[in-house]
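Standup notes, structure subgroup. Blocker cleared on the NAI input:
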Amino acid sequence: MYVPTDTSGMRLENETVVVTGAASGIGRETAELCAEEGARVVVTDIDSDGGRDVADDINEDGSEAVFYDLDVTDSDQFHAVVDEVADSYGLDVLINNAGTGHPSASLEELDDSLRDFVIDVNVKGVWNGCHAALPHMKEQGHGSIVNVGSLASVLGLPKQAAYSMAKGGVLNLTRAIAAEAGPYGVRANTVCPGFTDTQLLEQYLAQRDDPERAREEMAAEYPLQRLAEPAEIATAILFLASDEASFVSGHGLIVDGGFSTC
Ligand code: NAI
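Run returned:
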């Protein structure tokens, strides 16, 4: 049985980490942080130019990264990437970060195709990644999966019904995986961020008449009086990915500056 005992030194030394949606925002910060912590990082995204830039930056900084085009909704493509990575290097960590939002609208205003799109990317995408990675992780007897949920995994957000449905699914899917794969030495956890300063948030705010004012009002609702920086979510992901969290599994780590507690 794999029981990590040495947590000194770099936290992901000699480990191979796959990050989805790593071309921007939280995924980009996470890929860069994992590289700084000694990981070989597999940067994946549908944004080829952005993803290649991230991998190039990591390599220029003296760490190791490769880029793969990967649409998480394409199960065959996800399997092909994961199989190739696992066969070449092994697969220690999978970070299912890719996600998308939808316009703020009541449930009855959201049409079925938009609902399906949000489900496809945000929850089936996570499923596809886990489906591809788990056989390798179980066989090697260790692995860590970190799925990126949201505050919408634990709260039902008004005018965000499809997003809330998908992100709630991510949290409970992760718990099921933790229960199922734990006997094989595989951990699975969810990070549930509050509003974080990324292009996804920009798109969300752009729907408002006065986006800057909407951002200030949003920030004022947080006890810390600000929104999260992507790096602050990346550190939580790194913790759960690494052996520092060696006895943490099935957990939903809320990173929201105290928003959901008051
Ligand atoms: P972002 O828009 O900066 O990054 C998302 C990345 O995912 C982009 O690079 C995009 O190209 C990629 N992507 C989108 N669809 C994809 C697909 N089908 N396959 C592969 N890649 C795809 O957004 P952000 O904020 O960094 O989002 C990362 C995760 O964090 C998402 O799961 C999001 O739902 C979650 N999150 C974000 C919050 C926020 O306020 N920014 C709050 C809570 C959760």
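Discussed briefly. Residues 16-193+229-254 form a domain with the Rossmann fold fold (CATH 3.40.50.720).
Next: hand off to the docking folks.
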